[in-house]
Write a structure and sequence with these properties.
Elements (H helix, E strand, L loop, with lengths): L4 E4 L5 H12 L3 E6 L3 H13 L4 E5 L5 H12 L4 E6 L16 H26 L8 E6 L3 H4 L6 H21 L4 E8 L6 H4 L5 H4 L12 H12 L9 E5 L4
Parallel strand pairs: 1-2, 1-4, 2-3, 4-5, 5-6, 6-7
Helix pairs in contact: 1-2, 1-9, 3-4, 4-6
The chain binds NADP nicotinamide-adenine-dinucleotide phosphate (NAP).
């Protein structure tokens, strides 16, 4: 499996970046998807190549079906697909109640976090399912503990998008379980990445760290380690399962 291609959406920064580096260190060929930060994506590729790994960067806004098709076309030219990490995700501005949310915000949230993940999975299943002549593979979906907590007064739309991801993980897992594909989800807790700044609250993870049973934020590497385990053969009997990596939150 380790010579196979792993497609990581949003592989340029945060959890996706850490996953790209961790998977490359295990020998996988990495397709680093990115939305707009080409410099960050190129830096991830350079870091992988500096350690004799193989990686390419491909621009892919998962809100665009055309971009997703181009991402998988590029992956086809790079080798045999072994895994998809549906990592790209956004938050809206933090602290906005549902009764204040615009339709545009909610539609964008669902287009990126939900539709984007489902469309990427569709392309991965077409390539990996034994039903379609593929050799099997793994799909890991990034959810969030927000799916369980609901994120009231913070971003309920985001929490709802991750709830959808949890249902998708379970359902798709059952659908393709007999076709050589495992599907798993990860629910990270408060992880120290740029996503909190994107929601307008750069310090959010650290501010709330006291509410975590382990009393600290998590690192992108701690999520990446769980992802590379899930895509490895060591997790060969794990499917339709969702793992909390959240310090107990
Ligand atoms: P991040 O630091 O904000 O990085 C986001 C990554 O996704 C970047 O590589 C970015 O690309 C890419 N991206 C953003 N919008 C995109 C789009 N429309 N299409 C494709 N790629 C896009 O995020 P993160 O914290 O690593 O989060 C990664 C995943 O974990 C997300 O699904 C998030 O919901 C989930 N998660 C994070 C936390 C946390 O505390 N950090 C907790 C629970 C769940 P550019 O570099 O090009 O902008």
């Amino acid at each position: 499996m380790t010579d196979k291609v792993v497609v990581i959406t949003g592989g340029s920064r945060g959890i996706g970046r850490a996953t790209a580096l961790a998977a490359a260190a295990r020998g996988y060929r990495i397709v680093v998807g990115y939305a707009s930060n080409q410099g960050a994506a190129n830096e991830v590729v350079a870091a992988i190549e500096a350690k004799n790994g193989k990686a390419i960067a491909v621009k892919c806004d998962v809100g665009s079906e055309q971009d997703i098709l181009a991402l998988f076309k590029a992956a086809d030219g790079f080798g045999t697909l072994g895994a998809l990490v549906n990592n790209a995700g956004i938050v809206g501005k933090s602290g906005v109640r549902v009764d204040e949310m615009s339709a545009e915000r909610i539609q964008q949230m669902m287009a990126v976090n939900v539709t984007g993940s489902i469309l990427c999975a569709r392309e991965a299943v077409k390539r990996m399912s034994t039903k379609h002549g593929g050799k099997g593979g793994v799909i890991v979906n990034l959810s969030s503990v927000a799916a369980k907590l609901g994120a009231p007064n913070t971003y309920v739309d985001y929490a709802a998008s991750k709830g959808a991801i949890d249902s998708f993980t379970i359902g798709l897992g059952y659908e393709v379980a007999a076709e050589g594909i495992r599907v798993a989800g990860i629910r990270p807790g408060l992880i120290d990445t740029d996503i909190h700044a994107a929601g307008g609250e750069p310090d959010r993870a650290h501010r709330l760290a006291h509410m975590v049973p382990m009393k600290r934020v998590g690192t992108a590497d701690e999520i990446a380690n769980a992802i590379v385990w899930l895509i490895s053969d060591e997790a060969s009997y794990v499917t339709s399962a969702i793992l909390d990596v959240s310090g107990g939150r």
